[in-house]
Write a structure and sequence with these properties.
The protein is α/β, with parallel strands linked by helices. The chain has 2 domains: 182 residues, Quinone Oxidoreductase, Chain A, domain 1, CATH 3.90.180; 131 residues, Rossmann fold (3-Layer(aba) Sandwich). Helices cover 27% and strands 26% of the residues. The protein is built from 9 helices and 16 strands. The relative contact order is 0.17.
């Protein structure tokens, strides 16, 4: 079945957060830009909310891991940004579809990832129907459903590389961010014993998410302890393989959510020499990974974690906060008011100290 192109006529212009040069949060500004027009296989989404993530910080500031700069230039840009509109995820409502679209119809509430295309910090977003999109859980509001996406999508990609088994010992390095907070919950859902590495300020949140033990990185070095792990999620990228190798069990897996160029190019060699899987995560958007996040929520294994919420006209402040490196879970930006409000399900709030 195909849908005729929707009779809905979007406006010619939309408000978007754009940046035309690299720098601090103040380079971001709101501006009117053209609304994209969907082709035969495209859908047009009215965006209700997006997040400001660490990826947005890296793009905006051109703050890339060592050695990654040249590789990322086709996406980031050399002298000026290649992607003027940031935002790697979104929640919203489909308002128009191309005449070859079969997956979605106008009125569908959806969440998803845009990946390296970005574009979520705008009132409208156009994507092919094959993009990383899933239907929003009916019992979650747009913002709460959105908070599942970035981390859930990433951890789904991780566990496709190495599944989590009941009884596994799992370490999450950088456990309080959007990805780490999901890693804890997913590992517990699949029956693992979870150790979280974070600051002492986050102890309460991590306990509520299910961490069995918390290592405060300012007081203790996880790599010098006596415990060993079947799986390590490295969400920080601040330690060489040798530190992880010491506490990784034979046949274990190091899943590198954050990695610099050296880590990327040495991963296969470390895997071959150590007999342990060293797997950099590529952040390749896939509909199945977004659906994994929403399915796990429905099964009771994943709760959204929201740190702070900003209006669209406060997006510079959202960038400033993310730049501190202290966010817990997701930082939400309200792009537009939703057409309806739905009471949220169980929600893990990131309480401030």
């Amino acid at each position: 079945m195909t849908h005729e192109t929707s009779a809905y006529t979007p406006p010619s212009k939309m408000l978007a957060a754009v940046y035309d040069r690299f720098g601090g949060p103040d380079v971001v500004r709101l501006a009117d830009v053209p609304v994209p027009r969907p082709g035969p296989n495209d859908i047009l989404i009215r965006v209700v909310a997006s997040t400001v993530s660490a990826a947005d910080h890296r793009m905006r500031a051109r703050d890339l891991p060592p050695g990654i700069g040249l590789l990322a230039m086709p996406v980031v840009g050399l002298f000026r940004p290649r992607r003027r509109i940031l935002g790697m995820d979104f929640a919203g409502t489909v308002v128009a579809v191309g005449n070859a679209v079969t997956r979605f119809a106008p009125g569908d509430d959806v969440v998803g990832m845009t990946g390296s295309a970005f574009g979520g910090h705008a009132e409208f977003l156009m994507l092919p129907q094959s993009a990383a999109i899933a239907t929003r859980p009916a019992d979650l509001g747009h913002e709460e459903a959105l908070a599942l996406v970035f981390g859930g999508h990433t951890i789904s990609e991780c566990i496709r590389r190495r599944e989590i088994r009941p009884g596994d010992d799992v370490l999450v390095n950088g456990a309080s961010g959007a990805v780490g907070s999901v890693a804890i919950q997913v590992a517990k859902h699949f029956g693992a014993h979870v150790t979280a590495v974070a600051s002492a300020d986050n102890a309460g949140l991590l306990a509520r998410l299910g961490a069995d033990r918390v290592i405060y990185y300012r007081a203790e070095d996880f790599s010098t302890g006596s415990e060993t792990y079947d799986i390590i999620f490295d969400c920080v990228g601040n330690a060489p393989f040798e530190r992880f190798d010491r506490v990784l069990k034979p046949g274990g897996a190091l899943l590198q959510v954050a990695a610099d160029f050296k880590a990327l190019v040495s991963a296969k060699g470390h895997t071959r020499r150590s007999g342990k899987l060293v797997a950099p995560i590529t952040f390749t958007p896939a509909a199945s990974d977004v659906a994994f996040a929403t399915r796990l929520y429905r099964e009771g294994g994943l709760k959204p974690v929201i740190d702070r919420t900003y209006r669209f006209d406060e997006i510079v402040e959202a960038h400033r906060y993310v730049d501190t490196g202290r966010k817990r879970g997701s930082v939400i930006v309200q792009i537009a008011p939703p057409h309806r409000r739905v009471a949220a399900g169980t929600l893990a709030k990131a309480e401030r100290a």
